[in-house]
Amino acid sequence: GAVVSQHPSWVICKSGTSVKIECRSLDFQATTMFWYRQFPKQSLMLMATSNEGSKATYEQGVEKDKFLINHASLTLSTLTVTSAHPEDSSFYICSAREGSGDTDTQYFGPGTRLTVL
Amino acid sequence: GQNIDQPTEMTATEGAIVQINCTYQTSGFNGLFWYQQHAGEAPTFLSYNVLDGLEEKGRFSSFLSRSKGYSYLLLKELQMKDSASYLCAVMDSNYQLIWGAGTKLIIKP
């Protein structure tokens, strides 16, 4: 099946620094990528939707200047957490969708655990 | 390698009961999640099992057997709105999520 990877798997950083998380579709071209945040044992909160070559669409309540998303190619999207604070510590998961319809399958990445000290 | 298997598609009748199975082979185990995802929407959390046994939550129940690497999601009194994809995901020893491909559940009147 289709594979989505994330890098890094784990990151620990100091408060005030920026962290970049990569999401790659390894064997297909992803026209759309999604970024989620998971709180312990809870739902995935959609943060933003990114389409290749265009600006990301952020969900209500998500600061676009804090969570910078770049979808530079059909196989790579990056999420940069700028000026990270301890409350940004979370599990960030991306998913990638091949195709353009709502019924197309999303493939999920393994997640990146961010800890801000 | 790590692997999660679940059926690609299932069909059931409104008012009936359906069981969606999930088998896994992972390096370590830190819990199993079930999510429901309607087309075009974000996944919704249904259940989290880390100990063996059955957990019931309304019309939905989830079962886990760690020794068998097996879980199922049981949906009772099916409603048309239950038509969705159901995703099984296991958190491995590195706290990474390994995802199944999802089971598309079709409910017929």
Rounded to the nearest angstrom, the radius of gyration of chain B is 13 Å
Q: Give the N-to-C terminal Cα separation of chain A.
A: 37 Å
Report the total helices of chain A: 0
Share of residues in helices of chain B: under 10%
* Inertia-based shape of chain B: globular
Q: How much is the radius of gyration of chain A in Å?
A: 13 Å
Order of helices and strands of chain B: EEEEEEEEEEE
Structural class of chain A comes to mainly beta
Textual characterization of the structure:
- The complex is a heterodimer of chains A (117) and B (109).
- Chain A is mainly β.
- Helix content of chain A is 0%, strand content 52%.
- Chain A has no helices and eleven strands.
- Chain A has strands at 4-7, 10-13, 19-25, 32-38, 44-51, 57-58, 67-73, 76-81, 90-97, 106-108, 112-116.
- In chain A, strands 2, 4, 5, 6, 9, 10 and 11 form a seven-stranded mixed sheet that branches. A four-stranded antiparallel sheet of chain A has the order 1-3-8-7, with no helix packed on it.
- Chain A is globular and about 40 Å long.
- Chain B is mainly β.
- In chain B, the strands form two sheets. In chain B, strands 2, 4, 5, 9, 10 and 11 form a six-stranded mixed sheet that branches. Chain B has a five-stranded antiparallel sheet with strand order 1-3-8-7-6, with no helix packed on it.
- In chain B, strand 4 and strand 5 (44-49) form a beta hairpin.
